[in-house]
Amino acid sequence: YPPQLLGLARAIAENAAEGEFGVAAAARVAQMSVRSAQRIAAQNGTTLQDIIKDVRAMRAKEFLADLNISVQEIAFLSGYTDDRAFRRAFRGWTGQSPTEYRRDLAGR
Questions:
Q1: By CB neighbour count within 10 A (0-12 exposed, 13-18 middle, 19+ buried), where does 1 fall?
Q2: Best label site of 4, 13, 68, 94, fewest CB within 10 Å?
């Protein structure tokens, strides 16, 4: 991320570790208003939602490397209450299902 977004990205990652994926919570941890956070993201060609999506995808990929964590648990840890929604989102991020991604990781 550009330097201007690092604080927001860190705040989002910190919140994600606590299971919080909301825009307002990210702005609060970054110590700015939601509007300011949105403005900074827009000035850098992105949105807060896109940064949150990136953090979710990164966390999911990290969890998939651990074969002891089920896809359902990874969905929950990534902020999804429905593993089907997680699977759809993951396919959108990577072009693969979580199971295919995990199998490719194991094949390396």
A1: middle
A2: 68
